[in-house]
């Protein structure tokens, strides 16, 4: 079983029903030839980067299918070539990475990665929570959004509520274990008061060195 | 006072250094480059729509080849222009 993918652009001048009928026609063609349709993606009306057949936009369709042998491909391409309603097409075989990528994309894993990169920080962070081992900037951002923005607040919270907060922000973060952070945060909240005293100590030490 | 041993460089040696380039596909474990995602591919072409060389993007040879194929497929499907001006 090999997996293929055919992307084609349908003429946007046709009515909505005709466009759908065109896409369904190729889907049926594949089914009749013994292929199993994995997924049919309607990418919708898009602006073309350059005019095709004097059209400036087109309706994109992408059909992913499995076929025992590639004998269907020449037949499919021939019918796509002859079809006046099709502006452009591209058919190709997917490798294992491509199959996995498309599966992830359907499950919404691909788009999310982009969001993950930029966690929104609505509220300011008074303490740098990332100093605690295991807390990344992402986690700190999620906690800050929930109002947990200092060591003392994190120290006072319980593990369950923090897991819930993380799960809301990002399901992946919920796998982390917050119980260690709380212990660390308690220690840090005590340390912070110590740090405030420290500068004067440091100065006196420097003076001694000189 | 700073002793003589503390002064090693007259100027900060980190200034003017180029940032280390890296292959983003290797670093983030991206195995497949989607030709249907023109916004992503836009990172690998210049304002005229030409594919940027490896020495600028930092891609490894393996993924530069895949990027080139993906850009060419996107061009065929009119998702990216063959020739352009002021693309970005």
Fold and architecture overview:
The complex is a heterodimer of chains A (210) and B (88). Chain A is α+β, with helices and mostly antiparallel strands and 210 residues long. In chain A, 50% of the residues lie in helices and 22% in strands. Chain A has helices at residues 16-32, 72-82, 96-106, 109-117, 137-145, 151-156, 159-169, 179-209, and strands spanning 2-10, 36-52, 55-67, 86-93. Residues 114-120 of chain A have low confidence and may be disordered. With 88 residues, chain B is mostly helical. Chain B has a single domain, classed as 30s Ribosomal Protein S18 (Irregular), CATH 4.10.640.10. The termini of chain B are far apart. The model of chain B has no long low-confidence stretch (mean pLDDT 89). Chain A binds chain B through residues 7, 9, 43, 46, 48-50, 52, 58, 60, 62, 87-88, 90, 92, 95, 97-98, 100-101, 105, 210, and chain B through 1, 31-32, 34, 36, 38, 73, 75-82, 84.
- According to CATH, the fold-level topology of the largest domain in chain A is Alpha-Beta Plaits
For the record, the count of structural domains of chain B works out to: 1
CATH class designation of chain B: Few Secondary Structures
Q: Which pair of chains has the greatest number of interface residues, and how are they split between the two chains?
A: A-B, 22 and 16 residues
N- to C-terminal distance of chain A? 78 Å
Going by helix content, strand content and strand pairing, the class of chain B is mainly alpha
How is this structure best summarized?
The complex is a heterodimer of chains A (210) and B (88). Chain A is 50% helix and 22% strand. Chain A is of the alpha+beta class and 210 residues long.
Show the helix and strand layout:
The complex is a heterodimer of chains A (210) and B (88).
Chain A: E1 2-10, H1 16-32, E2 36-52, E3 55-67, H2 72-82, E4 86-93, H3 96-106, H4 109-117, H5 137-145, H6 151-156, H7 159-169, H8 179-209
Antiparallel strand pairs in A: 1-3, 1-4, 2-3
Chain B: H1 24-28, H2 38-41, H3 54-57, H4 61-76
């Amino acid at each position: 079983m090999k997996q293929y993918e055919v992307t084609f652009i349908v003429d946007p001048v046709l009515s909505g029903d005709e466009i759908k009928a065109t896409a369904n026609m190729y889907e049926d063609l594949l089914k009749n030839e013994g292929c199993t349709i994995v997924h049919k993606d309607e990418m919708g009306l898009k602006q073309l980067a350059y005019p095709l057949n004097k059209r400036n936009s087109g309706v994109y369709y992408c059909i992913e299918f499995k076929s025992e042998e590639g004998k269907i491909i020449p037949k499919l391409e021939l019918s796509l070539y002859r079809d006046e309603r099709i502006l452009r097409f591209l058919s190709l075989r997917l490798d294992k990475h491509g199959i996995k990528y498309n599966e992830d994309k359907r499950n919404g894993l691909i788009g999310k990665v982009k969001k993950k990169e930029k966690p929104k920080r609505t509220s300011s962070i008074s303490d740098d929570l990332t100093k605690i081992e295991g807390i990344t900037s992402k986690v700190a951002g999620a906690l800050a959004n929930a109002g947990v923005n200092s060591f003392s607040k994190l120290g006072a919270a319980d593990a369950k509520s923090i897991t819930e907060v993380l799960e809301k922000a990002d399901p992946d973060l919920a796998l982390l274990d917050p119980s260690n952070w709380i212990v660390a945060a308690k220690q840090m909240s005590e340390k912070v008061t110590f740090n405030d005293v420290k500068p004067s100590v440091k100065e006196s030490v420097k003076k001694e060195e000189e | 006072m700073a002793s003589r041993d503390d002064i090693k460089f007259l100027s900060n040696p980190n200034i003017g250094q180029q940032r280390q380039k890296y292959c983003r596909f290797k670093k983030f474990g991206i195995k497949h480059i989607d030709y249907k995602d023109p916004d992503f591919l836009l990172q690998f072409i210049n304002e005229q729509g030409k594919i940027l060389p490896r020495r600028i993007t930092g891609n490894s040879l393996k993924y530069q080849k895949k990027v080139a194929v993906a850009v060419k497929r996107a061009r065929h499907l009119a998702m990216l222009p063959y020739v352009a001006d002021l693309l970005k």
